[in-house]
Design brief:
It is a single chain. This protein is an alpha+beta fold. The chain has 16 helices and 14 strands. It has 2 domains: 169 residues, Beta-Lactamase, CATH 3.30.450.200; 217 residues, 3-Layer(aba) Sandwich (Rossmann fold), CATH 3.40.50.11500. It is 38% helix and 20% strand. It is globular. The termini are far apart. GO terms for molecular function: guanyl-nucleotide exchange factor activity. Keywords: Guanine-nucleotide releasing factor, Signal.
Length: 445
């Protein structure tokens, strides 16, 4: 039933508020986006989250520990049959992703808390993101870590990390102090890009605190941290990975820390903006799902380094395997250097090297904007002329003229790349949406 719920697991669309994105960056001419896949994620004013659950490790009769939900807020009542079944599948899947590293746990006295996220996609296409903080409860002596997991359909990693900071602070006092804070958050509307919402929260002995939660102005970058990628991989390797992702190949990332895996994979998927990775996407693969790497279709997955031997022993098809600990590629198809047109590849390399050497100077937000812009410009230059090749009928529906679109590209190397790119699922979805929504400035509807 867990696998039934998971169906296809991939990154929630880095959706955007069209108006604010255009305002902030008029050069972004690639506006199309599969509407049904992004609109639900970013509408301001909806609930911050659906559930807060605590997942604890329970000792089983064989001596192993198994993750179980020990706390859930809010408790839902009077659900319809279909809603109840969906909730049960969701609650069954969550523990797996909160403790994806298997059942080999032992009580400890010290544990560094870590933050990571996962994404679940239901069979109907609806998505939920799990924002997790794994920590050791306060106390003395040996004890087991637990995970606080916030389930939301909103993609905003920075905002939810701040919320989890508040949850962790309250956990050190008492579980009872978490409930009123989460209730206050649940009653607050999700802010629009660039806006702030203030939550009042009472803490015993500290009094009432005001917590300000602000969304970044550029909504499509609020679920990403490019610095995590730049710190672990050279610009040269990042371009090899980008080239593989653009052609929708199989990508496996290895690291031991869950936070490194989820941050770096979110960053790689975000490099594809304004296109969206629409295949299997599991930032941290639970141990029981390791055979995902045998899948013949495209995937982007993160696996803990401890499982490397098991992964390499699997009968898998060609894949790019990236070691995030050592910053190297362990296995490649071999043509990664030749996928992107060399001139544009060199321009992006120069841009990434510049940002890399300035890591100390730029803030995280600036690095995000600069890196994203380099890759957006790549797509603008390669396929930005797509609007000129949509033929509009009288009823305002469009038909994409693929042959004329490719023929219009003067450079042979650029055309060679585009002919492959137009066959990808991400380009097809993008164009499908563009065909449905006539660009206003093109004149009469």
């Amino acid at each position: 039933t867990v696998l039934c719920f998971l169906g296809v697991i991939f990154l929630a669309t880095e959706g955007k508020e069209e108006a604010s994105a255009a305002e902030n960056n008029p050069s972004r001419v690639l506006q199309g986006k599969p509407g049904e896949r992004s609109s639900v994620l970013y509408s301001a004013g909806q609930f911050f989250f659906e559930y807060l659950v605590v997942v604890s490790l329970k000792k089983m009769s064989d001596g192993h520990y198994e993750p179980k939900i020990t706390y859930q807020f809010p408790k839902r009542e009077n659900l319809l049959k279909g809603q109840k079944e969906e909730e049960e599948r969701l609650l069954q899947a969550i523990p797996l992703f909160c403790f994806p590293d298997g059942n080999n746990w032992a009580p400890v006295t010290e544990f560094t808390s870590e933050t990571f996220s996962f994404v679940l996609t239901n069979v109907d296409g609806s998505r939920k993101i799990g924002y997790c903080r794994r920590l050791l409860p306060s106390g003395r002596g040996v004890r087991l870590p637990e995970v606080f997991c916030i389930i939301s359909c909103l993609g905003c990693f920075g905002l939810f990390s701040k919320i989890l900071d508040e949850v962790e602070k309250r956990r050190q006092i008492s579980m009872a102090v978490i409930y009123p804070f989460m209730q206050g958050l649940r009653e607050s509307p999700f802010p629009a890009p660039g806006k702030t919402v203030t939550i009042k929260s009472f803490i015993p002995e500290s009094g009432t605190e005001l917590i300000e939660l602000t969304r970044p102005v550029d909504a499509h970058l609020e679920h990403v941290e490019f610095q995590a990628l730049l710190q672990r991989l050279s610009p040269h390797l990042i371009l090899h990975i980008f080239a593989s992702a653009v052609l929708e190949r199989r990508l496996i990332f290895l690291a031991e820390e869950l936070s490194v895996l989820s941050q770096c994979i979110h960053a790689v998927a975000a490099l594809l903006y304004p296109f969206t990775w629409a295949h299997t996407y599991i930032p941290v693969v639970p141990e029981c799902l390791l055979d995902t790497v045998c899948c013949p279709t495209p995937f982007m997955v993160g696996i803990q380094m401890r499982h490397l031997e098991r992964v390499l022993d699997q009968p898998m098809e060609e894949a790019l395997i990236v070691d995030l600990c050592e910053g190297k590629i362990l296995r490649a198809v071999g043509d990664e250097e030749e996928i992107l047109p060399i001139k544009l590849q060199n321009e992006m390399l120069t841009s990434l090297n510049r940002h890399n050497s300035n890591n100390n100077v730029h803030t995280s937000e600036q690095v995000n904007a600069l890196v994203s812009e380099a890759f957006v410009q790549f797509f603008v230059r390669m396929v930005g002329h797509y609007t000129s090749h949509i033929k509009w009928s009288k009823n305002a529906s469009g038909t994409f003229q693929e042959r004329a679109f490719c023929k219009a590209i003067a450079s042979k190397t650029n055309r060679k790349f585009v002919k492959k790119f137009v066959k990808t699922n991400m380009f097809s979805l993008f164009i499908e949406e563009a065909e449905k929504s006539r660009i206003p400035q093109e004149g009469k509807q």
